[in-house]
Specification:
Structural class: alpha+beta
Distance between the termini: 35 Å
Radius of gyration: 17 Å
CATH architecture of the largest domain: Alpha-Beta Complex
Shape: globular
C-alpha cells in the first residue's frame, strides 16, 4: 500500500494545487482529460501508478505548461499557499535559517510521519561540497518528485530570506539530483514565522 498511498497523496496534492490556483472548472477539465470522474474520484483508492502520469499529462495539455514546470509550481504551492500552512510550519521547524533547514532535510520524512503516520515522503540525501554548494538526491517511486523539491526549496529560501540558486541536474531509474547553491543566507528579511499556532 505504500506506493498507493504515495501516489494518492501526490494526486490529491495536484488536485488541490490546480483547484486553488486555476479554479474548480479547470480541475474538472483536467480530471476528465485523465479519464477520472472529478466528482467521484478517490485519490487513496488503489489506482495504478500511471494514474499520476495521466493527471500530469492532462494538466500539461490543458495549461500548456511543461510537466516539470507544473511540478515545480506544485512544490511552491505546498509551501507558499495560505491553504498549506501546515506544510510550511512542518518545514520551518527544521531550522532557524536556510542552512540549518538544509541539514534537517534528511530527517523530514520521519518528522512528517509523526504528524501523518501514513505519509510516505521520498528519501532525501544531502551532500555538502563546500560552504555554499550542495546536492540533494531524492529517491522515490514518483517520477518528477525532484522538481517538486526544487519548487519547495525555492519557496523555503524565500521564506527564510535566503538567495539560493537551484537546478534539477538529472535522474536515473530511482533517484533525481538537485543542485543547491546558497549564494546569500540572509539576502532579505524573509517571511514572519510564529512558533505558536493561532486559535480559530
Amino acid at each position: 500500500m505504500r506506493g498507493v498511498a504515495m501516489h494518492g497523496m501526490i494526486i490529491r496534492s495536484i488536485q488541490c494545487f490546480l483547484e486553488d490556483t486555476y479554479g474548480r472548472p479547470v480541475w474538472e477539465d483536467i480530471a476528465k482529460g485523465a479519464g477520472l470522474d472529478p466528482e467521484a474520484f478517490e485519490p487513496m483508492m488503489p489506482n495504478r501508478e500511471t494514474r499520476t502520469d495521466e493527471v500530469l499529462r492532462a494538466a500539461s495539455r490543458r495549461l500548456d505548461k511543461p510537466r516539470d514546470t507544473l511540478l515545480e509550481d506544485l512544490g511552491t504551492y505546498l509551501v507558499a499557499h495560505p491553504a498549506m500552512q501546515v506544510v510550511r510550519r512542518l518545514l520551518r521547524f527544521c531550522g532557524p535559517d536556510f542552512h540549518d533547514f538544509l541539514y534537517s532535510l534528511e530527517e523530514l520524512p520521519e518528522r512528517a510521519r509523526l504528524a501523518v503516520p501514513d505519509l510516505e515522503l521520498p528519501v532525501l540525501d544531502l551532500r555538502e561540497h563546500d560552504s555554499e554548494s550542495y546536492t540533494l538526491t531524492v529517491t522515490h517511486d514518483v517520477p518528477g518528485f525532484g522538481h517538486v523539491m526544487v519548487g519547495m526549496l525555492r519557496a523555503m529560501a524565500d521564506d527564510y530570506g535566503a538567495l539560493v540558486l537551484l537546478d534539477h541536474i538529472g535522474r536515473d531509474a530511482a533517484s533525481e539530483v538537485v543542485s543547491i547553491r546558497l549564494a546569500e543566507p540572509a539576502f532579505s528579511a524573509g517571511r514572519r514565522f510564529d512558533l505558536r499556532l493561532k486559535a480559530g
